[in-house]
Structure formats: C-alpha cells, structure tokens
Task: inverse folding
C-alpha cells in the first residue's frame, strides 16, 4: 500500500522561519525567501487537488462520486448546470458558493441546487470523509468537441496538482481530446491519469484489450498511467453488505484506480516536500542560524543576559518589559545552573513564561495602542514553543532562544516608553 507522506515537520520549520523573519527589515533577498517559504507552507498544508476532466458523457462526475464515497455530484443527462465543483474535507457537511471577485456564501449540508441558483464561479462541498484530508476533488464542467468549453477546461486545470482525463470507452481518446490535452502543461501531464470509462458495457469490455494496447502506445508524454474502470460496478461492489465485495471491486478496476490516484497524489506531495526541503537546507535554516547567534551568545553567560539587554535600550518606563527581561534572564540562569537539564523541560519553561505574558498583554494597557499586534506574536510563539517540545536535538533549543530574542525586540520597539533621563552632572 502506498503511504501518503507526512508534512508536519517541514510545515513547522517553515512556520518558524516565517515567524522569526516577520518583523525584519525588508530586503529583496529576504522578501524572496519569505515568498518561497509561504508558498511551500501553503502547498504542504493543503490537500493535493485532483482534477476530473473530460468531454460530456465521459463519466467524470460518477468517478469523482465514487472516490469521494458519496453520491453528491449529478450524473448523466440532467438540467442542473454546474460550474467547477470542489469536494473537500469538512467536519460537518456544508456547501460554499464562491466567486472570483467577492465574498463567498455558505449553506449548511449539501445544497448544490441552491448553490447553482446563485450563479457562482465555483462551488465547494465539504464532506466528513477521511480520504479528503489528503486529497481534494475538482469536478470540472464537461467540455464539448468544437465549442469554447475547451478553453474553460484549460483555464481550470491550472488550479489542480494532478488530473484524471476521462475518456468514454465506446470511442476512446478521440482526436478532439488529444488536441486539448496537448495544450496542458507537461508537468501536469506527467502526473495525470487517462481513465477509460464505461468498461462495464459489453461493447467496451469486448474490445478493451485492443483499445488499451493502442492507448499504451500513445500515452508517452501524455499520461502517467491508463486505468480502465467500470464505475457503476465499482460503486455496487463497495455498497455490498455486510462488507464490500472486494473481488468485484478489483476486477472492475476500482482497486487499480484508487491505487493510481493515491500514487499520483503521493508523487506530487513528495515533489513538493523535496522542493521545500531543498529551500530549507540551502536558504531558510542557514538564515535562521544567523539570527540565533545573539541568543546563543546570551546563553553562554546567563548572568549577563539582563544587563546586556538593558544596556541596549534607553531608560524605560515600562514594567512589562522589565518583567519580561527578568523572566528570560531567570530561564537562562536555570539553564546555566543545570547543565543536564532536559530540553523538553527548558522548552516547557519558555512556553509557560510566554503564555503568562500573552495573557497579561491581552488587556492592552501596558503597550502602545498602535502595537496591537504584539499579543498575537506572543500567542503564536506559545504554539511554536509547544510544537518544539516534540522535536529532538539542539535545533529546537536554538529556535526557542531565537523566539525569545525576537519577542524582546518586539516589546522594546512597540511596548516601551522612554523615561525622563536623569540630568547629567558636570565633569
């Protein structure tokens, strides 16, 4: 069985980089790194999108219903005209009506007819289906052979990570289909499937071997794999009681299709992971190392932490900043006195202190009104410090020190007022 790769570690590293650099002065190099890190984080945090496309009557909506495990998309001849429909994970069923240029509208439950009446640009349906935690399904409107719907299909395919082109087995892979698919970017074609549908019909089943032999010769550079599927039979196999008919599920092509879909989704996820890891290793983590230098120097002599931080600031009249400096100085003192302190215990101490100050900052009376973003920074730091406790090695300790230093800078910049300096005495 193909194992879908996890992304939790990389997403945490990307989030730490973005948090640590959020308030740094803008430079072209830093802006480029932050843009790449944000893009990686978004891709790895979202489900892999699988687009279903094909000419009218090719059975793409039936196939999407089968993989979603729910009969929600209309199939066959019907009068309900739908735009792009996205099937995603949600704790409770809901239907979102969306437009490219305005705010969406949400209906509870599955309400495709009501959503279609709003004339949206797209509709999103949320289902509590475990498989949808990893992949989301994009059911594209059917395309015609000689009309402008081909252009719409090409435009919408830009939003998906992988694609399944459904071709009707009664007249598989026509010239009009080849013409459209040749215009799809190569990186998408390399991670897409050609599903030959209606293989449960006798005329298609009888000629299937010959059709597949022809398609295998033509797939080079066009598809990752070709998968024949008798969708109605597959649906019937999985609906059997008291348990699915797994033998029928396999012979009708359902098992092969499910494995191939997971394969292309996993391949895309691994590709995204590799790109993120390369940037983390080459750029993001080395940059964070330069930010942790000051924190490491402070940890080497904890008794000088508070005086050194205070000497860098003008005379301050802000009790919360002074209390913060004292608190982190006590953390470093504990670290110095206990050379064998457990990293998890140190990180937990950091988290508890940050959490205490986050609660204290909530009333807003101790910081400048224009610095209302400060409490949010402390809340994010609390979450990051909690996540760091599940990692090993010296990296989390360095990251924690960097977080504390960044919070000190934030308070010094936005939460302090300059006290009246004592008069200078003559020399």
Result:
């Amino acid at each position: 069985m193909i194992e879908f790769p996890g992304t939790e570690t990389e997403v945490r590293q990307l989030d730490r980089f973005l948090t640590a650099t959020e308030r740094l002065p803008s430079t072209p190099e830093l802006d480029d790194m932050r843009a790449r890190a944000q893009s990686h984080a978004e891709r790895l945090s979202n489900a892999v999108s699988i687009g279903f496309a094909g000419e009218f009557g090719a059975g793409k909506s039936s196939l999407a219903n089968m993989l979603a495990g729910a009969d929600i998309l209309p199939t066959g001849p019907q009068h309900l005209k739908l735009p792009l429909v996205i099937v995603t994970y949600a704790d409770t069923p809901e239907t979102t009506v969306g437009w490219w240029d305005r705010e969406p509208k949400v209906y509870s439950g599955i309400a495709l007819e009501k959503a279609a009446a709003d004339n949206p640009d797209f509709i999103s349906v949320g289902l509590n289906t475990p498989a949808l935690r990893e992949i989301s399904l994009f059911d594209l409107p059917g395309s015609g052979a000689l009309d402008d719907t081909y252009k719409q299909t090409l435009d919408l395919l830009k939003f998906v990570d992988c694609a399944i082109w459904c071709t009707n087995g009664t007249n598989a892979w026509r010239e009009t289909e080849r013409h459209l698919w040749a215009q799809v970017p190569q990186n998408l074609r390399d991670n897409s499937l050609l599903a030959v549908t209606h293989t449960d019909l006798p005329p298609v089943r009888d000629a299937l071997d010959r059709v597949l032999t022809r398609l295998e010769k033509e797939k080079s550079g066009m598809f990752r794999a070709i998968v024949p599927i008798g969708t109605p039979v597959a649906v019937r196999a999985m609906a059997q009681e008291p348990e699915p008919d797994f033998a029928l599920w396999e012979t009708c092509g359902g098992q092969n299709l499910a494995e191939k879909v997971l394969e292309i989704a996993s391949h895309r996820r691994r590709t995204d992971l590799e790109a993120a890891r390369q940037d983390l290793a080459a750029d993001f983590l080395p940059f964070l190392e330069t930010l942790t230098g000051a924190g490491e120097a402070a940890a080497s002599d904890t008794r000088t932490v508070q005086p050194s931080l205070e000497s860098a600031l003008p005379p301050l009249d802000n009790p919360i900043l002074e209390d913060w400096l004292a608190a982190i100085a006590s953390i470093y003192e504990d670290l110095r006195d206990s050379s064998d302190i457990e990293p998890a215990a140190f990180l937990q101490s950091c988290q508890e202190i940050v959490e205490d100050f986050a609660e204290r900052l909530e009333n807003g009376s101790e910081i400048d009104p224009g610095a209302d973003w400060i409490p949010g920074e402390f809340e994010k730091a609390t979450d990051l410090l909690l996540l760091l406790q599940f990692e090993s090695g010296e990296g989390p300790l360095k990251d924690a020190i960097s977080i504390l230093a960044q919070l000190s800078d934030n308070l010094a910049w936005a939460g302090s007022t300059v006290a009246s300096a004592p008069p200078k005495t003559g020399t």
Observations:
- Residues 254-300 form the longest helix (47 residues).
- The radius of gyration is 29 Å.
